[in-house]
Design brief:
Number of strands: 19
CATH topology of the largest domain: D-amino Acid Aminotransferase, Chain A, domain 1
Bound molecules: pyridoxal-5'-phosphate
Shape: globular
CATH superfamily of the largest domain: Aminotransferase class 4, branched-chain amino acid transferase, N-terminal domain
CATH architecture of the largest domain: 2-Layer Sandwich
Helix content: 25-40%
Largest sheet: 10 strands, mixed
Number of domains: 2
CATH class of the largest domain: Alpha Beta
Structural class: alpha+beta
Mean pLDDT: 95
Length: 370
Amino acid sequence: MTQTAHGVEFTLQRSAHPKGVEERAAILANPGFGNYFTDHTAIVDYTVDPEGNGGWHDARIEAYGPISLDPSAAVLHYGQEIFEGLKAYRHADGSVWAFRPEANAARLNSSARRLALPELPEEYFLGAIRGLVSADRDWVPSGDGEALYLRPFMIATEAFLGVRAAREVSFRVIASPAGNYFGGELKPVSIWISREYARAGRGGTGAAKCGGNYAASLIAQQEAEANGCKQVLFLDHFNDDAVEELGGMNVFFVMKDGSLVTPALTGTILEGVTRSSIIQVAKDMGRDVAERKITLAEWRDGVGSGDIAEVFACGTAAVITPIGLLKDSTEHIGSDDAKAGEVTMAIREELLGIQTGTVADRHGWLSRLV
Ligand SMILES: *Cc1c(COP(=O)(O)O)cnc(C)c1O
């Protein structure tokens, strides 16, 4: 039994076949991103009773392994699914900390409302993370820029093909040791402009973290890769080409005067925890931050005139990644042999420092897990 500090009890059934010390060490020596998973998983199930009252039950930590689903499970047909992403960092003294997990718990619930899934009380979210990382504490890497990536997700498991919100749902967390997201040194990436495809539309699910948004972005991502780019930029191209975000990262501009600009949240943009943390960190550093509309034309003209000094993307997985070149068949903004900008690097150092415990956690963003 694991009694969490938050009062929700997760039973612990240890894996009978955990990976051996040597195999784990070999994985941790070069984890990459999303390739390997730890020995355990956290699960909480949800059922609506005959009176129509829903409840979460059977909170547990058990061996990582395949999920048994009825072929008619709603998630397999109608995509009723949401997810989260956050990291657990090992500090120099060996302790393990999550970065702003309450923000992820809150966002999971705002995604749940949009996808007609049940909200999960915060203490279950935090208890699941704590219980899982505690069981798999030896999987938290300690190398520079490394962390244990946590992937909470919620799926509609009810066996039913009618079109309505499912009455049986499962919340789970899996964990994956992570190195540098894009691999290698921090080199500015090239970004492809998606002209044909949108990842989200007005009134749609763009502000929710759901698998369907990613499914919608993959064809554009393939186009990006076919054109030598790492990621794709989505614009509001039916209107004024306002910059929205990348497939899974928000975008920031560093202006000539040292201030920052990031696209305002319009409903088609996902509100990143990294994005809001950067807004705070930049203000702490004395910088002005504007959340406003910024169009492709302003990006092009700003880079041309020097009004825009640096551009970067941000998200939990890669934290902060400089953007060198933005292109498609007609545009060529910036340069693919650009160096990472000074302000980009300073903000990255500060944020990573807070996450890894080398810079004071002045906003109380860290939660100790182990
Ligand atoms: C998860 C995600 C982000 C980044 O959010 P973080 O909380 O910073 O990891 C940005 N855009 C999209 C579409 C996302 O799904």
